[in-house]
Design brief:
The chain has about 180 residues and is of the alpha+beta class. Helices cover about 35% and strands about 35% of the residues. A 7-stranded mixed beta sheet has the order 1-2-3-4-5-7-6, sandwiched between helices. It is globular, with a radius of gyration of 16 Å.
Length: about 180
């Protein structure tokens, strides 16, 4: 069972730094940092947590760090926020990313009066957007040739789920209150 908690610098920094610097993970992270060293990354992260991100969660599974999830472009007056999830490479394909999405979106809808959550994914990250479909997010837009990656352009796919649709998906995936 995964556990979400808010980032605490002294306990979580090393794991978050290693995640954001994993080459396989870094290219897929939205709002990724440009940093050259441990200290510049720390400054970037703390600035983002205080200025750009609304929530920044670290996620553990049985006390093992598996990834992070954070909201950005949080617009309470418009009723929506963007969510980004980054999973350690060794947990890709295990379903932990989908579990994280379910847990964080549930938390967002419980904690805030938002009507919609968006997620942005590059078109070459097929495993991720298939997972988003599985947990109820629907494709809403495609920005063609958005980012140059690995020698070619990738589209940016924008997925979303509204509060009511999410509750329906959540209850079908986890019908008992024990989940």
């Amino acid at each position: 069972m995964i556990e979400l908690r808010y980032y605490r610098d002294e306990r979580d920094y090393g794991a978050v730094y290693r995640l954001f610097t994993e080459p396989e993970v870094n290219g897929n992270i939205m709002n990724k940092p440009d940093h050259n060293d441990f200290q510049s990354f720390k400054k970037w992260l703390l600035d983002c947590i205080s200025e750009r991100f609304n929530d920044f969660f670290v996620v553990y599974d049985n006390e093992v760090f598996v990834g992070v999830a954070y909201t950005y472009d949080f617009r309470l007056i418009d009723g929506h926020a963007c969510l980004s999830i980054a999973v350690r490479q060794e947990f890709v394909g295990t379903g932990v990313g989908a579990q994280m999405a379910l847990a964080v979106i549930d938390r967002i809808f419980r904690d805030y009066p938002l009507r919609k959550v968006f997620m942005e994914v590059y078109s070459d990250n097929e495993r991720c957007y298939e997972s988003l479909n599985d947990v109820g997010l629907k494709s809403e837009a495609r920005l063609k040739d958005y980012r140059f990656r690995d020698g070619r352009y990738a589209d940016l796919l924008i997925f979303s789920v509204d509060r009511e649709s999410f509750r329906e998906v959540e209850s079908s995936l986890c019908p008992s209150p024990v989940c």
